Amino acid sequence: MAQQSKTSKWNQIRHAKLFMPIVCLLIVLLLNVIQTPDFFKISMNNGVLYGYLVDIINRGSELVILAVGMTLVTAVSGGQDISVGAVMAVAAAICCQILSGGAVSTNTLAAPIIVAALAGILAAGLCGAFNGFLVAKLNIQPMVATLILFTAGRGIAQLVTKGQITYVRVGSYKVLGGYIGSCPIPTPVFVAILTVIVMQLILKKTALGLYLESVGINGSASRLVGLNSTMLKIIAYIICGLLAGLAGIVASSRIYSADANNIGLNLEMDAILAVALGGNNLGGGKFNLMGSIIGAYTIQALTTSLYAMSVSADQLPVYKAIVVIAIVVLQSPVFQSRISKVTQRKAVGNAA
Amino acid sequence: MEREIVLSMSGIDKTFPGVKALSNVDFKLRKGEIHALMGENGAGKSTLIKVLTGVYELESGEIHMDGFDGPIVNHNPKEAQAHGISTVYQEVNLCPNLTVAENLFIGREPRKAGFIDWKKIRSNATSVLRNLDIDVDPDKQLAECSIAIQQMIAIARAVDQECKVLILDEPTSSLDDDEVEKLFDLMRRLRKDGVGIIFVTHFLEQVYAVCDRITVLRNGELVGEYETEKLPRLDLVAKMMGKDFNDLADIKSEHEVVIDDKTPVVIDAKGVGHKGTIRPFDIAIRKGEVIGLTGLLGSGRSELVRAIYGADKADEGELYVNGEKVKINKPLDAMKHGMAYLPEDRKKDGIIADLSVKENIIIALQAQRGMFHLMSKKEMEEAANKYIKLLQIKTASMDTPIKSLSGGNQQKVIIARWLLTNPDYLILDEPTRGIDVGTKTEIQKLVLDLADEGKAVTFISSEIEEMLRTCSRMAVLRDGKKVGELTGSQLNQADIMKTIAGGEAAKEEITIDEEVAENGAAV
Ligand SMILES: Nc1ncnc2c1ncn2[C@@H]1O[C@H](COP(=O)(O)OP(=O)(O)OP(=O)(O)O)[C@@H](O)[C@H]1O
Ligand SMILES: [Mg+2]
Q1: Binning pLDDT at 50, 70 and 90, where does residue B517 land?
Q2: CATH topology of domain B248-338+424-491
Q3: If you ran DSSP here, which 8-state letter would residue B401 be given?
Q4: Ligand 1 pocket check: which of B23, B27, B47, B215 to mutate, most ligand atoms within 8 Å of Cβ?
Q5: Do domains B5-244 and B248-338+424-491 have the same CATH topology?
Q6: Ligand 1 pocket, B402 CB below 6 A?
Q7: From the list B353, B368, B371, which residue is nearest A217 (CB)?
Q8: What is the pLDDT of residues A66-85, one digit of tens each?
Q9: Burial of B211 (0-12, 13-18, 19+ CB in 10 A)
């Protein structure tokens, strides 16, 4: 009897929504500890925190911000926005170009940072609206629709910066990607946390989450109960664009420049993976934001640890792919039902 | 003498989280018999079938089939097919974006040198369809066919395969009388060939028309197996419900609301139409009135209400709600003017499968309130609890996904969704589809109660008796056109049938709404 209640509790935990994402994160962290014993060591250096863990949480910020938007887009449209990386570059380019007043490099600000940043984010929002229009109004497959900006986005960014890397060598522009005053925690961490909190609040206080899920599951039934699926899809893509813009500004602030070719490069794939690792169905419908965020940190932990094992950037994708395959298999329904059967049989055996 | 047993199931159990769907059920099917499997919504009929065909894993119990030594286990429907079991599931399981012909042969395509022989598929499809008298182009995309045709295609696919056991889970729920008759002919033919048929339905007349034997389930348990002749209808209902109940009792006489010219008009449509589906029509629906729409399948019954509700935006005519001219561009506009619409196709237009029962109940009200006015958790739970109780929805909890409810219980959830919005005008398109006899009567009573409360109701049903029990007036449709209205003494089966079928004889006997006739002529 006690055995039975134990297995049922175990089953309860195992079926909790965040179980698999957390297990995956733990596995990656465990691998890290084996590789680098001082993995969890955090130290203070020059008044700021240092350590692998700090690095993961810091570097993962952009990915977390992207994953939030990607989750919404996936839920409502059953497809992904693959333009977010390029849109990051667009936002960065516009922001830096305004700050430099058109020059290639500047030591003084031509406009207040807040204005430039908002302009960049707004432009990114427009990109999102464009994607949303193609998906919702013209009914184009999300992957195909966002392919347009995926390819054109970096070109647009190049146009904005006139093919140069625009540098903004001003201390205050480095804050967003660096540190606020003497705070030992990197600023991007706060930006990511704030983004997540704001989105959680929106989901808790409004019916947006329910609406997005409903449209993602059954568009035709949703229309008949009075939901405007076109509008909801466009909203999701705009949010996704705005967040990509924010991530772009953070990334640009880290290197106090707009590098149209490299900002956000390949991040769209990581963001999609984060959503998948979070236990979300890429075909849309019900979603789990916290899952995506854990997924994002998992990917970042993986990237960081691979770098720590001195895998070169070119080979990185191969190793990432291997780990991703393992994780995805672990989460697949087939594998899951295998596990259930094994635990069931065990329970039966124990009872007998 | 006992006929040879082709299939026997014994001691079948099935548990879902929070629900014991089947416990220790036995079932026997003989060669060349039609065997009805009966029970209330959620009794476990579909589950028993899915355990048999391997959709669900067999937990305990044994399945024996004639011709196989020892118990058989089906791990998936394909294995069941290999054992000679063909199935038409309750929810049509075809591929909407494939053609009719492709749907008929998917998974068993005729091949030539390893490649799919498309020519053969087409010619085979044509002959299969002709055999069953199904009037549809094999190249048509399935999604464009009506549910009735889709259901017929699912049946055609099942019977076209070599089988010893044929399972039909509520195959007649969207068919009209003619098509049902066609299906029965087919079933009788197969019976003569020695096929054992399991037939699930909530229509008692159909059971008495074709079935030799009846097995009754209640709450996942076997009540018993009976010969049809020896089990009168009232006894059958009592066995299913576990209590005496007269499903044919007169319910209308208790509800006498007087509706006359002075009763305010809630919905007044003048020349409303939608190109390609319904020709311009006039209809006025008064407070407290239940008006029925009748006509053959595809006559425009559903299309008429869809044009009013904005599901298909009307492209001509004027609509007045409570005397005020309104413009309805989308369903939300209609909802804001106090309308509610229960669609015909539950799976495609009704349920939001992965959402919970609670979310499915509140979604329409929440949509009406708007994104920034999220209902409180407490309000949602109260609403869900109220309707789960009122409609006796059988579910493990209000947080269970609606897709794991039985068909009839899903339907009740959708009804609850619209009742919760407290509409002035309620459109019910086949509201009792898949609902058991007891609940059907309850819903009919509910409709009359709602009318008594002053709501206007439009009721669409393929069952004429059901309409006679609820409606005080009926509009008749034919070929996408409203052709007349019947009231008072004209409301009887014979007159209705005549008007539906059309033709000269009918025209003389009923008064055709003149304006409508003109309108029709003008088009
Ligand atoms: N996949 C599932 N997950 C959880 N519960 C389920 C699942 N399928 C069925 N059930 C439950 O099992 C019970 C029996 O359902 P079943 O579909 O067999 O009923 P039924 O007799 O076919 O009813 P109906 O006449 O409404 O079709 C119901 O209480 C239902 O909620
Ligand atoms: Mg059923």
Answers
A1: very low
A2: Rossmann fold (3.40.50)
A3: B
A4: B47
A5: yes
A6: no
A7: B353
A8: 999 999 999 999 999 999 99
A9: buried
User: DSSP letters along B335-380, please?
Assistant: HHTTEEEE-S-IIIII--TTSBHHHHHHHHHHHHH-TTSPPPHHHH
- For chain B, say whether A226 makes contact (Cβ under 8 Å): yes
Q: Taking the domain A17-337, which CATH number applies? A: 1.10.3470
Domain boundaries, chain B: 5-244, 248-338+424-491, 346-422
Ligand 1 atom index nearest CA of B42: 19
The residue ranges of every structural domain in chain A are 17-337
Q: State whether A208 and B371 contact (CB < 8 Å).
A: yes
> The domain B5-244: what is its CATH number?
3.40.50.300
pLDDT tens, position by position, B310-343 = 999 998 999 999 989 999 999 999 999 999 999 9
What is the pairing mode between strands A257-258 and B5-16? unpaired
Least confident of A120-129, A249-258, B131-140: B131-140
Asked casually if ipTM beats, i.e. exceeds, 0.85, the reply is: yes
What distance in Å separates the CA atoms of residue B500 and residue B481, rounded to the nearest whole number? 11
The ligand with the least distance to the CA atom of B45 is 1
Q: Do A285 and B349 touch (CB under 8 A)?
A: no
CA B22 – ligand 1 centroid, Å: 10
Please report the sign of the dihedral spanned by the C-alpha atoms of residue B39, residue B41, residue B43, residue B46. positive
Q: CB–CB of A62/A254 below 8 Å?
A: no
To which residue do tokens 């059907």 refer?
A: B440
